[in-house]
Design a protein that fits this description.
Blueprint (H helix, E strand, L loop, with lengths): L11 E2 L2 H11 L7 E4 L7 H8 L1 E6 L5 H8 L4 E6 L7 H5 L4 E6 L5 H10 L4 E9 H8 L9 H9 E9 L4 E2 L6 E8 L10 H13 L5 H4 L6 H5 L14 H12 L1
Parallel strand pairs: 2-3, 2-5, 3-4, 5-6
Antiparallel strand pairs: 1-8, 6-9, 7-9
């Protein structure tokens, strides 16, 4: 049994009931190109490997790798990449065969990992992640909600976001101070994704939500003026949290017109 390292944000899932539910939600099949981010002690790795026959794991902690390799030897073919996941090129890793990405993500770096995956969305079939429940709630939030924001918009424009179930602190060792939740992300077909520059889209979304109490006309000053916002069919006096994700695409088109 490994000792969790605080600086890696490690919380090892050990409750078999929740592990079984996660594996069932992923429903791995032989031939799937499974990639796990942060396998830890392998609690989720080995049930997935048993079903899929082979998979790849990305692990930063070198102390965990020898035991993972040893235990995997009798189960299937496990390729381990020792790296920071933010440095991994998922598109190159896929080699033309879309990946299914899974992981119990460290809370402190979950958003950067999500945005990193979005950069490689064309190489991904689906993603199943366990994250802090508060983050999953924000990912799936609808317009008008107090927790609807940048993360909601950017993810929902590219993926179908489905919150699956909650996992309590006691299911982990050591237990975190908050509830966790499992979420499924399925990339939308290319024709349904934003047809605008991703960096400009993010700039508009970031500015719109930077000060939530500001109207769009004030929040987007320097990017779009009130008449340009109104020309998109959007009230410049509205606040960002009331807009549907597609509205931010319209605003970005106006920015680039």
């Amino acid at each position: 049994m490994s000792r969790a390292k605080k600086h890696f944000g490690q919380h090892f899932l050990h409750e078999h009931g929740y592990l079984d539910r996660i594996v069932a939600a992923i429903a791995p099949q032989p031939g799937d190109r499974l990639v796990e981010i942060g396998p830890g002690e392998g609690a989720m790795t080995f049930p997935l490997l048993k079903r899929a026959g082979r998979m790849t794991a990305i692990e930063l902690d070198t102390d965990l790798i020898p035991r993972l390799r040893e235990r995997a030897a009798d189960i299937g073919e496990l390729e381990i990449i020792q790296a920071d996941v933010l440095s991994v090129d998922f598109t190159a890793l896929a080699e033309g065969h879309p990946l299914r990405i899974v992981g119990n993500l460290p809370y402190y770096i979950s958003s950067p990992i999500l945005f990193h995956c979005l950069k490689h969305v064309d190489a991904i079939t689906d993603m199943h992640f366990m994250l802090q429940k508060e983050v999953v709630d924000r990912m799936a939030a609808a317009p008008g909600s107090k927790i609807y924001g940048r993360l909601s918009v950017m993810l929902q424009l590219v993926c179908e976001v489905t919150a699956l179930f909650t996992v309590p602190p006691g299911a982990f060792r050591p237990p975190p101070k908050v509830d966790s939740a499992v979420v499924r992300l399925r990339p939308r077909p290319l024709a349904q994704r934003p047809d605008v520059d991703a960096n400009r889209l993010y700039a508009v979304v970031r500015a719109a939500f930077a000060q939530r109490r500001k109207t769009l006309g004030n929040a987007l000053k320097g990017l779009l003026d009130a008449p340009s916002i109104a020309a998109c069919g959007i009230d410049p006096k509205a606040r960002a949290e009331t807009l549907a994700p597609a509205d931010f695409v319209l605003l970005t088109r106006a920015l680039t017109a």
